[in-house]
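Repro:
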Amino acid sequence: MRSSTRNSTHTIGKNTQIPAAGSVEPVSFVVAANDRAILESNFLASPCLQGDGRHEILIQENFASAALAYNDALERSRNDLIVLCHQDVFFPTEWLSDLAKAMAYLEIHDPLWGVLGCSGITSNRRHWRYIYSSGLGTSGAPLANPEPVQTLDEMVLVVRKSSGLRFDSDLPHFHLYGADVCLRAAAVGLKSYVISAFCVHNTQQIFVLPKEFYRCCKHIRRVWRQSLPIRTTCIRLTKYNIPVYLRRLQELHLRYIRRKALGAGRSPRVESIYEASRRATTVSDNLLTK
């Protein structure tokens, strides 16, 4: 997403109905969007957003970076609980109920949590998640309880406005802001967790990352040099930057030898992906219980 003219925020008057299986306080959903077709066929098609209720949707467009878009939304939002997500994420009906269950657990075990997400990684490479992602299919498994991690994937981030957490306004572009906000939380003694809240990331699979990604790597390494090494779900940042050099060498091979910069694309029917993934999970669960 690039800034073109003016920054713009759109509030959509469509709210959600709280699922009967659980209750959650009013939520502000925030999306930094640059493609209306993708937004409408994925995020805005999410079943948990349908109906009327207490929740707010803020669409952030024409911002120069995700950090600026989300900081603006954090100031504008009318609710304390804020879900920040990609425009190609699809939330099923039960997603808010799953969020409520995770928050109920944390209310007892860590009421001062910092950031929640659906995919994240620990400093010792344990990747917790329970999601569907294009090209990878369903990965991970349901979690009994929220799991602490070092950083979270940007596909879904949950924060509280009242926590005071904000994104680094100097972090450019649209990468690694999840790692940044988790490190900011840790710096003030707040933990980040992966929660068991299944969703679909109907993304374009990319094997060769854009140059903007590596600019963000450089920024994170400089700002958080005292916290190195830093693990993210896509790369490890270290003092001598060896994992980044190796990744870029691998990308040269993919781009110029194998001619394969992209993987699986987005599905035009995200609802069918979700239904198929849930059927596969049900079959797997039934086999395990036999």
